[in-house]
Design a protein that fits this description.
elongated, four-stranded mixed β-sheet
Length: 287
């Protein structure tokens, strides 16, 4: 596979590329250079990574020379933990650590990654800084294929992953959409795919009640079951405040257990704590 189509040819500004991903760059002008010098604000322009919690997106600066083709995929292998340890300056170490945290977040929450590809002007490891001569924003999304919490080794892949987490509706193929009742022979309640996706990412593959990891399906996805704490049939909301990811056993218990009423209250408390711990992304909805 030829990677030349990803080789940058223009000297574009980082601020403009970050803004084109949808991230607000308004604060870049809040320094002594003002609006005219916003793109050179040292608080932002030298960073290696950027995050937007409302959009749930991460933007990374990657070097063209480090792109690889592996098993038909375009990848970049990173270990920012090692980079931080061996950095030639404190600012470099801080930027590497910040980027490492971003990679961990992308891996844990399945956030999409946008990549600014840089080329030219890279210094060796003993230099205090590098300056890219050319940049481009890849039109394709990337994702973290693997991240080792033990070593910090990370593999980024260009493209959109297959669903890492699925629930009973992915398998049963019930209709997706906003939470509403459709009249047929019986009443069928449709679940928002956005809410289900958010809950599965929040759970990260583990039952939000007992902590047991969901089982892996033939497709490689991890299976849990999404459950409305207050049922839709009882006017429960189809929002992240009323949905929890459970292992099949505890999902059945939530419906049929002898202590189902008390279990409902405890699940509501658990979800409230989970959402608070994930602020400011906890206000996700079906919109």
């Amino acid at each position: 596979m030829n990677l030349e189509f990803l080789k940058p040819s223009d000297r574009l500004r980082v601020m403009d590329l970050v803004e084109s991903t949808g991230i607000d760059v308004g604060d870049w002008s809040n320094f002594k250079g003002g609006v005219e010098k916003a793109a050179s604000n040292p608080k932002y322009c030298y960073e290696w990574s950027y995050e937007d919690h409302n959009m749930q997106v991460i933007v990374l600066n990657l070097w063209y020379e480090n792109l690889l083709v592996q098993d038909g995929e375009i990848v970049q292998k990173l270990n920012l933990r090692e980079t931080a340890k061996n950095a030639a300056s404190s600012p470099q170490s801080r930027r590497a650590t910040k980027m490492d945290f971003s990679l961990q977040k992308a891996a844990r929450l399945n956030w999409p990654v946008r990549v600014i590809i840089c080329d030219g002007g890279r210094r060796d490891s003993s230099a205090t800084k590098s300056s890219a001569d050319r940049r481009l924003l890849d039109i394709e999304q990337w994702y973290v294929k693997s991240y080792s919490s033990d070593s910090g080794d990370c593999v980024l892949v260009r493209g959109v992953p297959t669903d890492l987490f699925i629930d009973q509706f992915n398998i049963e193929g019930l209709p997706a959409g906003e939470a509403k009742k459709k009249e047929s022979i019986t009443s069928v309640y449709e679940r928002s795919p956005q809410v289900r996706s958010y809950i599965l990412k929040r759970a990260g593959g583990f039952c939000e009640w007992c902590g047991q990891e969901g089982f892996k399906t033939l497709s490689g996805s991890i299976y849990l079951e999404t459950h409305h704490i207050q049922p839709l049939s009882e006017d429960g909301s189809d929002t992240v405040d009323n949905v929890v990811a459970l292992c099949p056993n505890h999902h059945r218990e939530a419906h049929f257990g002898v202590n189902a009423v008390q279990f409902r209250k405890e699940l509501a408390d658990r979800v409230e704590k989970l959402n608070k711990s994930m602020q400011p992304t906890a206000n996700a909805s079906a919109d």
